[in-house]
Structure formats: structure tokens, C-alpha cells
Amino acid sequence: MRYILLSVAVAFFGLLSGCHATSSGVDRKIRLPPDISGTWERYPDDWAGKDADNPQPPAGPFDLKEPYAKAYADLQKRKAAADLAGTPIATASTRCLPEGMPTIMEGTYPIQIVQTAGQVIVLAEFLTQTRRIWLDEKMPPADEISPSYYGHSVGRWEGDALVVETAGIRTDVTFHGTPHTADMRLTERIRKTAPDMLEDRVTIYDPMVFKKPYSFTLAYKKSNYKISEYVCDNNQILIDAKGGSHLNLGFKRN
After folding, report:
1. Pairing mode, if any, of strands 237-239 and 214-223?
2. Which of 25, 91, 110, 209 is the least buried, fewest Cβ under 10 Å from its Cβ?
3. What confidence score (pLDDT) does residue 245 get?
4. Which of 22-26, 62-66, 208-212 comes out lowest in average pLDDT?
């Protein structure tokens, strides 16, 4: 009886100290997932290129199948002509709509990551967006996922990397104007590369549209910046019948 009580006490204090007893009698530390919480800004500062208002795709041109390649090329021509005319084509943000996935992770503005035992939450300052990654859950069947701006994301820890799968992104949510089908899937590997550095390796899978998966890596640096409310009223921009946007200098607040 004395031996049993002693064994219970050893096991109890082992748990308190972050250890657990093994069959061989050797204690091993319980490994907790890395803490990726905090506010993060894209790094380096010139990641958007020469034209910050028109950043280029992060891994170069998209290799698309027809008819998607032609549709994308036509869009780029219309964008160039509209920019030259001073009436740029309205984007999701111009319309005060969420950026969606994976654009929210591009970090035009700072993002904040809140990590809990059951989920990882990504908060973007721009448009006060919220994305949720549910941990240790299975991806629901496609017909049970309601299409949304950020899709449905599930994640699991593999060593020091948070592996995330995302499905169910609305087809009207585009990444640099790239079309996609309802079957598009994203995978991410999010991990710290240094105490103050974070990376997100993203791959887009959509065999109907892309000739091969499109992969890119986003890098972030930790920041002391405090996320603020960023609400879009959409009362300064007029959008014409052709989708062109015009600055309304004579707007009035209600």
C-alpha cells in the first residue's frame, strides 16, 4: 500500500513539473506547441515591390489553364487601361468587402495572431477581419461547408509547424485577380524561424485552373504595433456600371 501511495505521489508531482512517467521509468518533458501569438508585419518592408498599390503575385506569374488564362490576361489588360484612365477597377477592399483567403495573410496591414488550445485566430487591422483555424478537427465534407471569404480552416501541430488546410472559399474571392473553382484547397505551414520572425508557406491547389500547385512563402517580423479598428464606410468611392472606381470628393455623411 505504501508503494502504491508513493507511485501516485511521484506521478502527480511529475505532471505538475511538466513531465510524465514512461514504462521504462524515464521522465520526459511534455512538449507544448510553439507560441505564435502576437502582432506581425510583413517583412521586409519593400515586399510589395515598386508599386505598393499594385503588388505582384508573390511567386511570379500564375501558370493557368484555359479558359482561365485568357480571362486572367484580359483582366490585367482592363486593369492597366483603367489605371491609365484614372478610374481603377474596383477591388474587394474598394467595395468594403473582406479580402478573404489567402490575401488576408499577405499582410498589407499588420495582423495579430491569438493562439488558444482549440483554435488560432488571425485578426487583420484592415476592415477588422477575423479568420479562425480550428485545431485538431477533421475537415468536414465539402457539401457541409458553407462558402465564405476565409473558407473553413483546420490545423494541427507537426513539430514546430502549424499545418493548416482550408476549403470552401467563395469563388468570387480572388488572389491577385486569379479565378478559382469551388474545389480550390489551400495548405499552409506556419512556423517561427526566429524568436521574432514568422513564416507562412502557402500552396494553392486547384487542378481545374492551375497547371501545377502555386506555392509561395510569406515572412513576418514581430511588432509592438497595437491593432486598431479599421472600418470602411464606402462613402468616398463611387463605382460606375463598368466597375470603375471614382473618388467622390463631395460626399456627405448621413
Report:
1. unpaired
2. 25
3. 61
4. 22-26
In one letter, which amino acid is 228? S
Listed by start position, the domains of the chain span: 1-30, 38-223
Angle at 78 between CA 218 and CA 185, to 5 degrees: 35
The pTM for the full model equals 0.80
Scored b (16 or more CB within 10 A) or e, 186-202 reads bebbbbbeeeeebbbeb
Q: DSSP for the chain, please give it.
A: -HHHHHHHHHHHHHHHTTEE--TTS--EEPPPPP---EEEEESSTTTT-S-TTSPPPBTBS--B-TTHHHHHHHHHHHHHHHHHHT-PBP-TTTTT----TTGGGG-SS-EEEEE-SSEEEEEETGGGEEEEEEET-PPPPGGGPPPBSS-EEEEEEETTEEEEEEE-B-TT--BTTB---TT-EEEEEEEEEETTEEEEEEEEE-TTTBSS-EEEEEEEEEE-PPP--------SEEE-TTSBEEE-TT----
